[in-house]
Amino acid sequence: MSLMIHIRSMLVRLSLALLAANAALLPASSWGADYVIGSGDALRISVFQNADLTLEVRVGEDGTISYPLIGTVKVGGRTIAGAEHHIAQLLKEGGFVLKPQVSILLMTVRGSQVSVLGQVNRPGRYPIETANMRMADALATAGGIAPTGADTVVFVGTREGKPTRQVIDVENLFNPDAGRDFLMHPGDILYVQRAPVYYIYGEVQRPGSYRLERDMSLMQALAAGGGLTPKGTQKGLRIHRRGGNGKIQTLELGLDDPVQANDVIYVKESLF
Predict the structure, then answer these.
(1) Are 157 and 125 within one domain?
(2) Cα(217)–Cα(222) distance, integer angstroms
(3) Radius of gyration of the chain (CA)
(4) Do 22 and 130 sit in the same domain of this protein?
(5) DSSP string, 227-267
(6) Based on the structure, what is the number of domains in the chain?
(7) pLDDT by residue (tens digit) across 6-62?
(8) Which residues are CB-neighbours of 11 under 8 A, at least 6 positions away?
(9) Which residues 6+ apart lie within 8 Å of 210 measured at CB?
(10) Residue 5: in which H helix or E strand, if any?
(11) Whole-angstrom distance between the N-terminal and C-terminal Cα of the chain?
């Protein structure tokens, strides 16, 4: 069972890596008409055959711009296509242009961003490039989860006016029944923690620290370290584990018993 879980985890990471590779190939111009405009974005607005209505403007903190003839216009939170339609409608309703054909070009992206931090390959702030950008897309844009990253993502954001924090299993991002790959909103934060590790030393082939996989048994932990040396023995394996009171306990576990984060496994030398 643990092997199957490990394989699923690797497949999820591969899927994110493939999404990341595709995202890296997309030029800025591919953001297109479904990009959601945010405060700080720089726009170039033009109206066909109306050169005097061409304007370069930055979206204010309240999501508005000031546009000739029609005054203050709310464009923040709209897609580029939606903002084009909205401005065209205002120009037509005001009687300023009979059949306005409005075009908006995104010059600089500063608004509608999410932060992807922690153990990802390219941590930073990224624009919400489409109206249906989801968590998996945001992780892929940041290069995917790094090898040192955990299999969970901490989400922090605001939903329905309330602060929200959730810890989400990356497997659920590709499980349509789980419904956890939700839409990104401006200001959302994704944080990938460092994966838990355990330590192994003594008579093993490769002593050191290793990533703790889900439901990992002591036998699997030893195998990850290359197994025992000819001098090593499985009898009397000792585990140093920090208890709930913060003190280090010394335990003797069976090979099928689970290993926990930060466990220190010591393999004795055989007396014979």
Answers:
(1) yes
(2) 9
(3) 27
(4) yes
(5) -B-TTB-STT-EEEEE-TTS-EEEE---TTSBP-TT-EEEE
(6) 3
(7) 545 555 555 555 544 444 434 444 456 777 888 888 899 999 999 999 999 999 888
(8) none
(9) 197, 198, 199, 200, 221, 224, 225
(10) helix 2-24
(11) 35
- What's the DSSP call for residue 35? P
The count of other CB atoms within 10 Å of the CB of residue 117 is 15
Domain extent at residue 234: 197-267
Phi/psi for 136 (5° steps) reads: -60, -35
Residue 36 lies in a domain: no
Query: Which CATH number goes with the domain that contains 260?
Result: 3.10.560.10
Kindly state the DSSP code that residue 145 receives in the 8-state scheme.
Answer: B
Q: What is the pLDDT of residues 221-243, one digit of tens each?
A: 999 999 999 888 888 788 999 88
Distance CA 231, CA 271 (A): 8
Enter the tokens of residue 45. Answer: 């607005």
The answer to whether residue 272 is domain-embedded is: no
List Cα–Cα distances, 163 to 78, 187, 188, in angstroms.
Answer: 23, 11, 10
CA pair distance 65, 43, nearest whole angstrom: 10
Q: Is residue 37 part of a domain?
A: no
- For residue 248 the two structure tokens come to 């280090």
Q: Is the pTM of this model over 0.70?
A: no
Residue (of 121, 161, 162, 163) closest to 138 by Cα position: 121
Q: Are residues 63 and 154 in the same domain?
A: no
Same domain, 125 and 101: no
CA pair distance 37, 127, nearest whole angstrom = 9
Pair (130, 187) in one structural domain: yes
Residue 259 inside a domain? The answer is yes
Q: Is beta strand 113-118 parallel, antiparallel or unpaired with respect to 189-194?
A: parallel
